[in-house]
Design the sequence.
């Protein structure tokens, strides 16, 4: 059922440390995954994506890891900065169309 | 290089009124998606449209909600006879194509408050 009004999981890190945000996805048939960053009052911003035929993809300061065996996705942010503070969502495309299914999100707080 | 535009950014309606939310996709994008977000939750898919066609409306409530993407002009999400439970942030996204790996770019959202 729906979870309404629950607080988001929160990850607090020190500025300069690495951050790891985890996500469990639901459908073993999903073949495309995306990480979005959402700052307060704004729309989701694309960070990085990965297809199911890969297990790792790197961008600028970010790395996404995909473990299809346990249906797990992670986002690693290197040298976390105050500007990285936001809610991070993973999303999956289950195929059969182009709609995305979003996870519940993780609040990242960067402490100075 | 404008991204996805949505207006209004904030909309207040009384119960029973109609709400019209507009979305202009990234220039050149012909695929539009609408999502709804309740506080502290992820986005929930509502509808996927191409110009003059509804491709997937599996996330749309059966009543009171409709969407269109005409040949000219923005995409419109229309909510008739709004109720308090419709209060949420509504986000529009667009993509250049309809392939699975075509990245969806999101607009800033419209925050609907029903009094």
Sequence:
């Amino acid at each position: 059922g729906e979870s309404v009004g629950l607080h988001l999981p929160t990850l607090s890190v020190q500025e300069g440390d690495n951050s790891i945000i985890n996500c469990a996805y639901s459908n073993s048939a999903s073949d495309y995954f995306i990480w979005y960053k959402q700052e307060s009052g704004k729309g989701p911003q694309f960070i990085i994506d990965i297809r199911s035929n890969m297990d790792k993809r790197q961008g600028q300061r970010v790395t996404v890891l995909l473990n299809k065996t346990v249906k797990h996705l992670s986002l690693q942010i290197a040298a976390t900065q105050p500007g990285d503070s936001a809610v991070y969502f993973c999303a999956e495309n289950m195929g059969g169309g182009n709609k995305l299914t979003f996870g519940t999100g993780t609040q990242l707080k960067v402490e100075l | 290089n404008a991204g996805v535009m949505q207006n209004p950014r904030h909309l207040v309606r009384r119960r029973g009124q109609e709400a019209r939310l507009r979305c202009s996709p990234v220039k050149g994008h012909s695929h539009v998606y609408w999502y709804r977000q309740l506080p502290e939750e992820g986005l929930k898919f509502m509808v996927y449209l191409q110009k003059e066609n509804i491709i997937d409306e599996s996330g749309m409530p059966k009543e009171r909600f409709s969407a269109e993407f005409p040949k000219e002009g923005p995409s419109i999400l229309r909510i008739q006879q709004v109720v308090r439970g419709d209060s949420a942030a509504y986000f529009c996204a667009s993509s250049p194509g309809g392939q699975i790996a075509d990245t969806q770019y999101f607009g800033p959202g419209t925050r609907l408050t029903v009094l």
Observations:
- The two ends of chain A are 38 Å apart (CA to CA).
- Chain A touches chain B through 32 residues (CB under 8 Å).
